[in-house]
Write a structure and sequence with these properties.
Layout (H helix, E strand, L loop, with lengths): L15 H19 L6 H12 L1 H7 L13 H12 L5 H10 L8 H8 L11 H11 L4 H9 L5 H52 L1 E3 L7 E3 L1
Antiparallel strand pairs: 1-2
Helix pairs in contact: 1-4, 7-9
Length: 223
């Protein structure tokens, strides 16, 4: 086992469904990479709990299996954890959450799309891509981008995302260019002030060094 990355233990408190999904995926990857997927059922179950750790074992001990031997079968154990970590959702509530969610001020286009793409719990029978597209457009912060998206006929989700990404990238580049221009202007002003101060100081020094010459009709010379 030492030559493979260890799997983070199964966290069973916050974001239970998400944590279980990540753990299961990493566990399956480990079995395949290590070759342990061909080992005996008992060994694979033992490996599962070795990574899942104490809390998972405690929950496992409270599972009721239809047959006693099922508790020693990896697929049955995983099925029990699937049901435990993914309880039946309230579809109406999940759909309400989907439509009420808004894009955060600092949230990127890609992050918002990823978050909105998780609509399995909403159980939309069809047209889920159109719903994600509509939610995406409704939550677009820039009025210019939103107006452009609304003008497009038969706009797909992919097209809307690409257009929004392009606008986001352009805004970031313009912001950097503006910051560079402001910084350059400030540097120029500072240099100009420095040169002006230096010129004044030099003129003052020359004035102080002037002496009255009694041999040149009252003229003055720099010493």
């Amino acid at each position: 086992m030492s030559k493979f990355n260890f799997i983070r233990n199964l966290r069973l408190k916050r974001n239970l469904s998400e944590n279980w999904g990540k753990f299961k995926q990493q566990f399956e990857i480990y079995l395949e990479a290590s070759g342990d997927n061909v080992k005996s059922v008992n060994t694979r179950v033992a490996i599962f709990f070795n990574f899942a750790r104490e809390d998972a074992v405690e929950i496992y001990n409270n599972f009721d299996f239809a047959e006693a031997d099922n508790g020693k079968k990896l697929d049955k154990v995983i099925e029990k954890f699937e049901n435990y970590c993914n309880p039946r959702e309230n579809v109406n509530f999940e759909r309400h959450q989907f439509w009420q969610s808004t894009r955060d001020v600092t949230e990127t286009i890609d992050h918002f799309v990823t978050r909105r793409s998780k609509v399995k719990s909403c159980v939309f029978k069809e047209g889920s891509e159109d719903m994600i597209r509509d939610c995406f457009i409704f939550n677009m912060r820039g009025h210019g981008v939103k107006e452009r998206l609304l003008r497009e006929d038969e706009l797909t989700l992919v097209q809307a995302i690409n257009m929004a990404r392009a606008a986001e990238t352009s805004n970031q580049q313009i912001h950097k260019m503006d910051n560079y221009s402001v910084g350059s202007s400030v540097d120029n002003i500072r240099q100009s002030k420095h040169k002006s101060s230096f010129a004044k100081a030099d003129a003052t020094r020359q004035w102080k060094n002037l002496i009255h010459c009694k041999y040149c009709c009252g003229g003055s010379h720099v010493t």
